[in-house]
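Our collaborator T.R. sent over the components below with a one-line note: 'Predict the complex.' Nothing else. No constraints on interfaces, no templates requested, no preferences about which chain binds where. So this is a plain run: every listed entity goes in together, and whatever single assembly comes back becomes the starting point for the next discussion.
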Amino acid sequence: PLFSAGSRAEQEKLLKLSSTLYIGNLSFYTTEEQIYELFSRCGDVKRVVMGLDRFKKNPMWFFVLYYSRKDAENAMRYVNGTRLDDRIIRTDWDAGFIEGRQ
Amino acid sequence: KRRRVRSEPRDIEDRLESLITRVGEKSTSSLESNLEGLAGVLEADLPSYRSKILRILSDCVTRMPEKTTIYTTLVGLLNARNYNFGGEFVELLVKNFKEYLKNCQFDEARSTLRFLADLVNCNVISIGSLMNLIESMVEVTQEDSIPQVRSDWFVYAVLSCLPWVGRELYEKKDIELDGLMRKIETYVSKRQKVHHSALRVWQSDIPHPQEEYLDCLWAQIVKLQGDKWIERHIIRPYLAFDGVLCEALQHNIPQLTIPPHHDECTYPFPFVVFRFFDYTDCPEGPILPGAHSIERFLIEEHLHRIIDQNYEDRKACAGALLSFPGKHKLPIEYMITEVIFSQLFTLPVPKYLEIFHGSLILELCRVQPSTMPQALAQAVEMLYDRLDTMNVDCIDRFASWFAYHLNNFQFRWSWDDWKPAANLDPLHPKTKFMQNALQKCLRLSYQQRLVELLPEELSHVIPKLPTPYYKYSSEGAGSLPGTMVAHQLASAIKEKCTPEEALLLIKDLPNPLHDDDVEPTHNPLKIEVFVQTLLNLASKSFSHCFAAIAKFHYVFRMLASSEEAQICILRSMFELWKNHQQMMCVFIDKLLKTQILECSAVANWVFSKEMAPEFTKGYVWEILHLTIKKMIRHVEKMQTELSEARVRLQKAEEDDEDSGDDSDKDIPTEEMIERKEERYDTAQSDLKNLFLIIFQRFIMILTEHIAQCEAEGKNFKNFWFKWTTGRLLSVFFQHHEQVFKYIGTLESLLFTSDIDQNILSIFQQFCALKS
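Returned assembly:
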């Protein structure tokens, strides 16, 4: 959702190599700690990045960065579509988190 | 036009593959007519696509063993139409079978043997030649100085093909079959079963015996023999083609020598059959086949197969399990539940990620909301009731899954049923299980939610609020040494001081270790003031904490100069975050990754006196295991780097000889490779050392415990002993691949005959997995 530049083919190539997931549809109150706990069940999490709503300062989305592609694939398989804070989580591939891009 | 001609054969090949692999799936016409039609199509294509068809069919043998009888029937029909093709296919199967045995691909070998056996029923293979083959397999039990796991596998493979071909053997080769059964009986009765105890999910046989797998299968086969080899589960499409098939000519399996044992062979581990349901647990539906009926074995094996095929797609997996053939005659929800838990609780380690089982169960509940949740709730009750003798690792997996599951159901549970646990010993498995599960619930949710949901009586198992305890701001902090400096440091950090400035502030703190003779290696007060002040300021979230570690990495490095100093860091952290277990786990993880902490320091801290009250808590072991895994990954990384460098150098040398071209700048020098070798060796010995420390500490505390209890005239086999020996076993099990490399060292250095038998036996049970 945050693509800034590059051709479509390039983006697709990046997506196939990526170990970063975009996490959406969460509650405003969901914390980084909860994301950590759930996504660590699929592998070693390198980083969790929280995206804040510019005005209300509520978390709007998260990025989960894994060390390995395989772990991210497992999160797509087993976490996507299950619940956290009673809301159904949506996970999607991201071409890779870049600091300051959002 | 040209393109079309070229692509046509490919199209036909793809079509053939799809026709063959999909036969037997849901269809408007009967299986028999589909098979007959397909046999016709394949026969017509044989002249041009013979090798392709052979390859597809032989792939089906190992990739879809749950459809064995469908494909044996197809091969039977083809053999009746084209004898040569039948011969070629049998030849290919036998060749594959030998390869599988040679390459230790035992699952594939077992599927192939079953296929060969069922081809007897389809009149493709002569019964005498099959009998020869299985007799030669059972002969393996007579081989000298082989591991038991080898002969076990051969007997298991033979026994597990008998449901398919037993009746035929009974009718036509009864004397030979009796002889075979006697040989197997002798073998089964003489086996060593040291591993049995370690691999059990429950130590108790009440209410259901937890049987060793070969003993169980043997009992099931003996019962099948008693039933005159008639079973009621296998679908046998060939029966409809009796007229065609009995006309066909048979082939012989050639005499085959079983590839001998060598040191590189790895055989499957033995296992224990997981049992927790019987027919009384599902009174309303159809009857659950008994534990020793062959149907139980066949259905469970089939369900495991479905999971193996679909574990990457939980929706497809749930769908396939729930549309199990013949499900109307079975309490299928119960059988599925039992199979999933048997996988989750597999020892030494589960085959798939734990979360896979959790997400599969959610999917089953979603698709079958009228029946699945009930079977599941019953299962949870039973697991809870039987916690007393449950394996410690399995208790962890149960708690972790349960929290995950509740998280998807608003944490609703009939908590009132568990109120009686309020009066139990704090170390009782039920108390510990609830504490552990609720800690995991807390991590997925928040504390207030748990307080509102749970009855008052259970308030003692609800986790405390995970807030930091900063001693320099507590009452009476004024009299503590270092309080002044701590406050100065806090304001400096708030005003974004540099790491150097922070170091300068704590520079003059007195050293409580100071002694006139020896200069201490570190200053505990400095560490305490710095670590607690920094972490307290950064306690808002993980991100704040990670940022603080990153910014003050230099200070941590300066302070963590020795192992003692590193343990001091851990102690200071623990004091602050005692109630925030998850924070402790991620903090230690981060400090290991940023190389502030060494793995051995964490291990020694876990076993230290200060941690004794925490020793039976789950998070401590989470920390120890993440530390070990970190070290293992490091060794693997060093190994990859080394071998990649070697390949690059070798390639460069070869290229050099060819062309003299030196354009590749990444060519490592001999010297660089030597350095990588050194780094790899160091990493390897660090890992070995880490395991030695851990096992030595285990032996020490267990020995102390036994001695102390005996001195006080108490039974040493109390709850503490159960938890600690369970944790020892789980270090063996969770890292079994690594630990097996040090078996020799461990045997001669640590697990020697002069240590207590209760400790030694855990090591011996572990060794039995491969002996």
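Summary for T.R.: Chain B touches chain A at residues 312-314, 353-356, 358-359, 362, 404, 407-408, 410, 440, 443-445, 541-543, 582, 586 (CB under 8 Å).
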